[in-house]
Amino acid sequence: MVQATEYFYVVKDEHILGGEPIIKGTCTSVRAIAETWRMGVFPEEILQGLPHLTLVQVFDALSYYSDRIG
Questions:
Q1: Which of 6, 31, 7, 3 is nearest to 15 (CA)?
Q2: Domains detected in the chain
Q3: Could you give the angle at the alpha carbon of 30 between the alpha carbons of 53 and 14, nearest 5°?
Q4: I need a surface site. Which of 14, 21, 31, 43 has the fewest CB within 10 A?
Q5: SS3 5
């Protein structure tokens, strides 16, 4: 079951990564995006490794991470 969050592109799905926050419509975790960013990779550069995402999705994931975890 997909659980919405207050972030447009971030959801939780108990069947994907054990309910870890992901980008809606993908299996890409917020954690993967945030860890890449914390290693010093600019959001625009994250898209090179995750070309199925948009810059807005990356920033939404980073906002979620910063508000909840980071």
A1: 3
A2: 2-68 (1.10.10.10)
A3: 105
A4: 14
A5: coil
**Which residue in the block uniquely carries the two structure tokens 């972030």?**
7
Helix, strand counts (H, E) of the chain? 3, 3
CA distances from 52 to 39, 46, 66, 70 (A): 21, 11, 22, 24
pLDDT in tens, the chain (70 residues): 899 999 999 999 999 999 999 999 999 999 999 999 999 999 999 999 999 999 999 999 999 999 987 6
Task: Evaluate whether 65 touches 33 at the Cβ level (below 8 Å).
Answer: yes
SS3 6: coil
Query: What is the separation of C-alpha 7 from the centre of its chain, rounded to a whole number of angstroms?
Result: 10
